[in-house]
Amino acid sequence: MESPPVDVLAIAAHRDDVELTCSGALLRAGRFGRRTAVIDLTAGESGTRGSSALREAEAAEAAAVMGLAARDNLGLPDAALENTPETRARLARLIRRYRPRIVIAPAREGRHPDHRVAAELVRDACFIAGLAKVEPDLPPHRPFKVVHCLSFREDWLKPTFVVDITDVFEAKLAAVRCYASQFRGVTQAGEIYPNGEPLIEILRHHAAHYGSLIRTRYGEPYHTAETMRVDDVGALDVSTF
User: Fold this and answer.
1) 0.85 cut: is pTM over it?
2) Angle (nearest 5°) at CA 18 between 186 and 132
3) What is the DSSP secondary-structure string of 97-108?
4) Between the CA of residue 227 and those of 9, 139, 159, 161, 230, what are the distances in Å?
5) What mean pLDDT comes out for the span 95-99?
6) Architecture of 8-225 per CATH?
7) For the chain, what are the domain ranges?
8) Angle ∠(60,172,13) on CA atoms, nearest 5
């Protein structure tokens, strides 16, 4: 029996990427009654710290914190991700299974090559998932919208929008802390540039910065290729002064 579709599906290169970049938005979506899920593209077997087995256990713990309906791992090679017809088709099959309306993808730029490739792979797989003649044993499904995380990378692109994560920020940190093998006692990880402070405090600084852009305490930034629509200019939010 098929499970009901999810509303928001986050897809990232590694276990822990989602927690760092978009767990606040997933937690907020859950507060609105949305079903959320995550696909990790690799098992993290090439990571400097920990092991793939340990990260699997940490990912399961973090999934419970985030209240996910499901979490999958595609098992693609860590530190060697490729956007090919084969990997697009494999990911498209999972997208069809979850049938999300919104997909959250990694940022299009980043230091780790897996992150950049994952952004392209996710976007292409979302398109391929809508082609009926590709993997025809599953009914096609193309998500309505793909958005890209921007946390920690304001050096190259201004966000299209910022999600207010003030009321779920401590839960976001709790999800990040599930990855003790990756983050306990460290001052740098992934795309986060170090300033000498513990990584958790750097996360707090970044979230406070993005929150300030929408006049709230904590925020998560996102980018879309398409222009956002406004229906009622009289209801515009975020004060100019």
Assistant:
1) yes
2) 150
3) HH--SEEEE--S
4) 21, 29, 12, 10, 10
5) 98
6) 3-Layer(aba) Sandwich (3.40)
7) 8-225
8) 55
